[in-house]
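re: ur question from the group chat, yeah i did fold both. here u go
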Amino acid sequence: MEQQKLPKVFVTVTAEFDPEGRLTPLSFVWEDGHRYEIDRVLDTRRAASLKAGGMGLRYTCRVRGIQTYLFLEEGRWFMERKRA
């Protein structure tokens, strides 16, 4: 069985800078047009997307009680597509 890489899903993100210059994502729009509010950012670090490829800032977020990753790579936001 051949393992396929899950592609990146580029998303529109609403984010804000705090007075110290930290960037915090607040919500994102998935490819179907649905907007999801980010309940909480749990962690931010430089990391690679092992599923979709790429390297950048990885935001570990809680959305509707589910942990997910949001990546900022070269000025573009993306997420990993889940398996169907």
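okk and heres the other one u asked abt
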Amino acid sequence: MTGAQDSGSDPAFAEAIRDQAEATIAMRRDLHRHPEVGWTEFRTSALVREAIVALEPDTLRFGATLYDGLDRLGVPDDEILAAAMGRAAAAGVSESELEPMEGGFTGLAADLVGSGPGPVIAIRADLDGLPLSESDADTHYPARAGFRSQVDGVMHACAHDAHTAVVVSVARALHRMRDRWAGRVRLLFQPAEEGTRGADAFVRLGLLDDVDAVLTFHILSNVGLAAGEIAPGVSDMLPTEKFVVRFTGTPSQFASSPERGRNALTAASGVTLLAHAIPKRPGSRSMINVGRLVSGTAANIVPASAVLTGEIRSDRMDEVAELAAAFKALSSGVASGFGVESAYEVTGYATNPRCDVGLMDRIAVDAEHAGLAVREPVSLGASDDASLMIDRVQQRGGVGTYVAISGGAYHPHHSPDFDIDDRVLPAVVELMVRSVVDLSGSGIPVGT
């Protein structure tokens, strides 16, 4: 009998979970009203820190000291960071809370300690929203219920608000019943999942190096799960590389001296069109997307700069590397042909780990006791930098999984109408708490 099954008949366990239900949904809706994009999650990080400090964690790393001088991928420019800090201040975050995060040093890591020696179990939540305007239609429940995004052009369109609220409630429940589990629980509140940017720093900081099991999860609307269903793991996480290419040319008066100019926009446009002709392996799920191209200052000036933002995905790590090398060579070659310089910068990446079978089996039992229906592992068909955390733990001899949880049959992720049925969140909290109690009491399964 697992620890989770033992706890199922424990009134104190049930009470600790039940008492978090309203708070979980309330926090999710509060975060939904105040979304922040990657590396600008100032208000979100401050709220999470306040909640975790109240639990008297054994360790807590926050702000610039968390990163210890480490370079981070895809940090926004100073103007964007300053504007986001201003919004957080206007929303009530104090100067003393903001100062440690200045420069985009958001997120935190904290350890809770149980009743005695035991495994180190990590749980990851992603914090960031997306640069997308949320629907204000009456048919959109957050708009109708009054928790639609209050930030123009930013929304939670991928359920990260729910993930954050769940892990905070898991921490509260575990603190309350810490005499019923052993070891350490490492809470990883990761910034900048969108663009697969933030996990890289957490991995390089060594936050996964002593972890025996890492539990990552995502509330999803697009993998075929019905309401109340979960899959204890996924397949087909797509490796990816995100990038920015900066083209630098020479400005000139277009009418009188166009020959003196070197057109960065023409070079970048050529690369954008030709990228789709880069050969891909037959049968692979490989794709190249240029999602943004910004250039020029006026109609009568040869554009001297252009910034191209894109991504590569595939079902094969080696194919991502080959396509990235081809795109970089294409950018350099086309730029050279127009007398323009180019610089390729990686801004994010993810891998394609396997989910450990033994851990999935344990999660499945815990899910049933939490009242959730269990499905076989589902195909994700997308990327998540939680993959880097799972990979790191497995490389060090531990186990990991990525749990897929139904968020209801709503609109697709990354769309203005995206929403979830947040009534499922208390059951997700219970699942994660049961899993910690189970793993700490019955031991970590052998990796597969």
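fwiw on the second one: Residues 1-6 have pLDDT under 50 and may be disordered. The chain has 15 helices and 14 strands. idk if thats what u expected
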